[in-house]
Amino acid sequence: MTTVHANTPRDALARLETLVLMSGIDLPVKAIRQQIAGAINIFCQLNRLRDGSRRVSSITEITGMEGETITMQEIFVFESEGAGPDGKIIGQFKPTGIRPKILDRMFSMGLQLPAEIQSLFPDPRMMAQR
Question: Same domain for 75 and 128?
């Protein structure tokens, strides 16, 4: 786990690519992108909201490569519902409805996922046993 300062997960990928290019090692851009896509699974994006608080604004998964482009899908997103009487932002973190590809790997590893995640994305092996 690490941090990268960027405005979006896509910007973070561009920043990582630029850092590799600045190293002086002569690698093709496609090779750099393949290494990045193979090394990173999830981006957890935090943003500062207009009330000054910081919140997780999205969780985005790296899904692979299409040609020379790293493919991503947003899994969860924070939806603001306005501000409370004290000015604090009110909202909910909601699933986008896209099933994360990493879940199958997590299930096969036998990792225990929180009940909230299991209810949203049940283990397909358990569904087949019913």
Answer: no
**Alpha-carbon span 53 to 68, nearest angstrom:** 37
Given a contact cutoff of 8 angstroms between Cβ atoms, the answer to whether 44 and 59 are in contact is yes
Eight-class DSSP state of 7 = S
Our count of domains for the chain comes to 2
Q: What is the pLDDT at residue 128? A: 61
Radius of gyration from C-alpha coordinates of the chain: 18
What's 31-45 look like in SS3? Answer: HHHHHHHHHCCEEEE
Q: Is residue 2 part of a domain?
A: no
Give 34: exposed, middle or buried? Use CB within 10 Å, 0-12, 13-18, 19+: middle
Alpha-carbon dihedral angle through residues 44, 14, 62, 53, given to the nearest 10 degrees:
10
Q: Enter the DSSP assignment of 51.
A: T
Which parts of the chain register pLDDT below 70? 126-130
Contact yes or no for 66/50 (Cβ under 8 A): no
